[in-house]
Design a protein that fits this description.
- The structure is a single chain.
- The chain is mainly alpha-helical and 422 residues long.
- Among the domains are: 83 residues, Rna Polymerase Sigma Factor, Chain: A, CATH 1.10.1740; 116 residues, no CATH class; 34 residues, no CATH class.
- Helices cover 67% and strands 1% of the residues.
Length: 422
């Protein structure tokens, strides 16, 4: 096998198998840093072995075996390492109520996610560490998801790992009594994983299907683990309803297609039906959570026969409720886009102007993109061109860049003065 073919197979294995390999290795190593080092070594060794011997039938099993062997060798070489390891090295605690349900699921990824989402860690550290360890995302991708610099995110991940060791946090799925305290962080992790795949921060394609599918699979597992948790159902509903549009979001050449122009016959009706069926239960039983409300918003879009026939006033009310329960500049920006359909683009542009003063949206590519569209609809074409250019400079996704270039060219041409007659 050629080196290029082996590298391609290894890259595919990294996307698909990282979470399984690392989680299985942590179970042996009982130390996250050691496990991650062994997994990275296994991937390096795979490149040489697969170039010489060919890609194995099960790349994930090959990588898991190699990583676990390295972990066992490291532990055998230095038994004194045990005194430096976190509580993960101690015998498993006695089974607690609810452990049976977790063991029935039998997925090491859940144990690793809940370990990373321990209450001893700050929320942003929980999410960042899980995206790095469980999902295998690079530091740069995680930094983009958090709208911070790469060095800042690298330091945050390092501190979170040290905190796990210092706090002696155990590698296990918590018991029933502990689950509520961990739930929101875990759901946030899965949602951020999905959004990173739904609109990839960089790369040739609009969507990273491997990340999307991993997030949906994890959301299903969480629903199985916590069937009575409304927000777990809400998250699964949201992911299903949003991802149902995937096939229509790009055309045959991979170019971005806006929601208004999508062929709704290409939407996944089975996913829409499954997601929509989860929404009522997620909304009932008290104040709805942020994932349930977002699922309700996507259900309105999914039920509309066309873009123009969407119930925009209903969406605006849902965004108002979402903004009250989960104040966020990104929610406010999405609300402004919907408000443009109810009150007109001028009213929405005023909202966007306020959001431009929010430092949390500095570098957020969808802010100038939304502003550009509103300016275009108002006929303020030179200003729209400047905003499209600003969005283009912030985007590293090829599909998004192509769309922004096309819009920039359109408004630039339309904004040029006509040549004098004669």
């Amino acid at each position: 096998m050629t080196d290029a073919a082996a590298r391609a197979a290894l890259a595919d294995a990294h996307r698909r198998e990282w979470a399984f390999v690392l989680a299985a290795t942590v179970r042996v190593a009982r130390d996250i840093d050691l496990a991650e080092e062994c997994v990275q070594d296994a991937y390096v060794a795979a490149l040489d072995a697969w170039t010489r011997q060919g890609v194995p039938r099960s790349p994930g099993a090959w990588l898991t075996t190699a990583a676990r062997r390295r972990a066992l060798d490291a532990l055998r070489r230095d038994r004194t390492l045990r005194s430096k390891l976190p509580l993960l090295l101690t015998p498993e605690p006695e089974p607690q109520p609810g452990r049976e349900a977790a063991e029935e699921i039998g997925d090491d990824r859940l144990a690793l996610i809940f370990t990373c989402c321990h209450p001893a860690l700050a929320r942003e550290a929980q999410v960042a560490l899980t995206l790095r360890l469980v999902c295998g995302l690079g530091t740069a991708d995680i930094a983009r998801a958090f709208l911070v610099s790469e060095p800042t995110m690298a330091a945050r991940v390092t501190r979170a790992k040290k905190k796990i060791s210092a706090a002696r946090i155990a590698y296990r799925v918590p018991g029933t009594a502990e689950l509520p305290d961990r739930l929101d962080a875990v759901l946030t992790v899965v949602h951020l994983l999905y959004t990173t795949g739904h609109a990839a921060p960089a790369g040739p394609g609009l969507v990273r299907g491997d990340l999307v599918e991993r997030a949906v699979a994890l959301a299903r597992l969480l629903c199985r683990l916590m069937p009575d948790e409304r927000e777990a159902r809400g998250l699964l509903a949201l992911l299903l309803l949003s991802d149902a549009r995937r096939a229509a979001r790009t055309d045959a050449s991979g170019q971005l297609v806006l929601l208004a122009d999508q062929d709704r016959s290409r939407w996944d009706q089975a996913a829409i039906s499954e997601g929509a069926a989860l929404v009522p239960g997620a909304l009932r039983g008290g104040l709805p959570g942020r994932f349930a409300l977002q699922a309700a918003i996507d259900a309105v879009h999914a039920s509309a026969p066309s873009y123009d026939q969407t119930d925009w006033p209903r969406l605006l009310l849902l965004y108002d409720e979402l903004q009250r329960s989960w104040p966020s500049p990104v929610v406010a920006l999405n609300r402004a886009v919907v408000r443009a359909m109810v009150d007109g683009p001028a009213a929405a542009l005023a909202d966007v102007a306020v959001l431009e003063q929010d430092a949390r949206l500095a570098g957020y590519r969808y802010l100038p993109a939304a502003k550009a569209d509103l300016l275009r609809r108002l006929g303020r074409l030179p200003e729209a061109a400047a905003a499209y250019q600003a969005a283009l400079e912030l985007s590293e996704n090829a599909a998004e860049q192509g769309f922004l270039r096309r819009r920039l060219a359109e408004v630039s041409r339309a904004g040029q003065p006509s040549a004098p007659a004669g």
